[in-house]
Amino acid sequence: MSNLIEIEQQVIGGLIMSPSLAKQITLEAWHFSSEVYGKIYSEIQALITENTVYDVTTVADRLERSTGMNYLPQCIDASRVATVKVDLAKHKAEIVRKQAMKRKAMMIIAEGNNLLSTGEDSAVDFIIYELMALDKGQDKYEWTMQEAAKAAVSKVEESYKRHLEGGTIGIPTGLSEINEKMGGFHNDFIVIGARPAMGKTAVMLNMAIGTGVRTGIFSSEQGHDQIGERCLAIAGTVSMHNMRTGKMEAEDFDKMMIGADRLLKTNSLINDNPSITIQELVRQARKWKHQDNVDVIFVDYIQRIRSTTKNQKNVTEVMSEVVPTLKSLQRELGIPVVALAQVNREVDKRTDKRPLQGDLSDASIIEKEADQIIMLYRDEAYHDESDLKGIIELNYEKNRHGPTGRIKASWRGEFLQVRDLAPDHYQQ
């Protein structure tokens, strides 16, 4: 402990002797094990906030006026700290922060153990939540306009570089036109809506396979084995009907194994809890991101996710909890979250049955939170003699960062495949 006190003293001394260091160190008062040094640090931060130039005398006077204490001359040896180099002080500050994190983690675990000993059902959730929150507490949320502009320029330069190289700006979606027009998946909350049996899950799985990265799939509607069958059909171009009925030819088995090999390379993850709560979903997604390096989260589907509270709520209240939490999760993890959503049956009563974003079940909260809203439509689902057989439309109803519009793709229902259209189809 005495060594830590000495390190904390050097950090405070470095801040006093080199005020410019304050902008390079991200600590909080509670990070200091010494209450005195914590108070001194708070006063230094207050002076910075007030845009006041400070030195040893200024800090000492401020401390005495605000706390009635004048410990500064006793705890700061100017002859020692004057030679503290900036890089060394930053290193010492990181030691202070890490030690504080360890102390806080031990307190959380101790409190969690007390809850466990009393049989409290929420003990495990408490420990996980508090430890996760402790880690997230180190994120930075305050930026200068210069920092924001610099970050934006860096993103634009990276996008330009990828464009010149002919690659997708974001994460590929499996469809070239979306990759070209929308830049693939970015760090957004994306909602894909459609009526039942329109192909929502198939579109999601085609996208998941087409990303080429490790994905996490929440499937509350279908079990992992059903998801596996669908993915085999998509990846291997094997008839879904033949697989389910056992009417497999030797060629089908060969294609299925090719598909299985492709799926194994993605090494994606599936959670098929049929009654998952939003809290359980968040917990699983965090684990997938931090331990398994998942790059995209898919959710099938929004309206099946349950509230975290045991009290019965109406659907609107549940969605008011679920949808903003999914948006916050996307921002927290810094990866795309793609969620499917049901569409009200009223759309079937219209002449033009293409769903709009306002047709989503509990549309208001979804329209508000989503960065992109894509509505699916297959004309052949309504008209047997349709001229648009074999075509699925992805209608971008909302795109917070770019254009909206209609993108057509090939629909091969036998294999549940969504593929790029041949060029001559784009004129239809």
Keywords:
single chain, 428 residues, alpha/beta, DNAb Helicase, Chain A, Rossmann fold, 2 domains, nine-stranded mixed β-sheet, 16 helices, 12% strand
Reconstruct the topology from this structure.
Elements: H1 2-17, H2 35-49, H3 56-67, H4 72-75, H5 78-81, H6 86-117, H7 123-136, H8 145-164, H9 176-182, E1 189-194, H10 200-210, E2 215-219, H11 224-236, H12 240-245, H13 250-266, E3 269-271, H14 278-292, E4 296-300, H15 315-333, E5 337-342, H16 363-369, E6 372-377, E7 391-399, E8 405-412, E9 417-419
Parallel strand pairs: 1-5, 1-6, 2-3, 2-4, 4-5
Antiparallel strand pairs: 6-7, 7-8, 8-9
Helix pairs in contact: 1-2, 1-6, 2-3, 6-7, 10-11, 11-13, 14-15
Class of secondary structure makeup? alpha/beta
User: How many helices does DSSP assign?
Assistant: 16
Largest sheet: 9 strands, mixed
**CATH domain fold name of the largest domain:** Rossmann fold
Report the sheet-strand fraction. 5-15%
Q: How many domains?
A: 2
Write down the Rg: 28 Å
Topology pattern, helix = H, strand = E = HHHHHHHHHEHEHHHEHEHEHEEEE
Distance between the termini: 75 Å
Task: State the fourth-level CATH superfamily of the largest domain.
Answer: P-loop containing nucleotide triphosphate hydrolases
CATH C-level class of the largest domain is: Alpha Beta
What is the number of E strands? 9
Overall CATH architecture of the largest domain = 3-Layer(aba) Sandwich
Query: Could you report the average pLDDT, rounded to the nearest whole number?
Result: 80
Order of strands, widest sheet:
3-2-4-5-1-6-7-8-9
What share of residues is helical? Answer: 40-55%
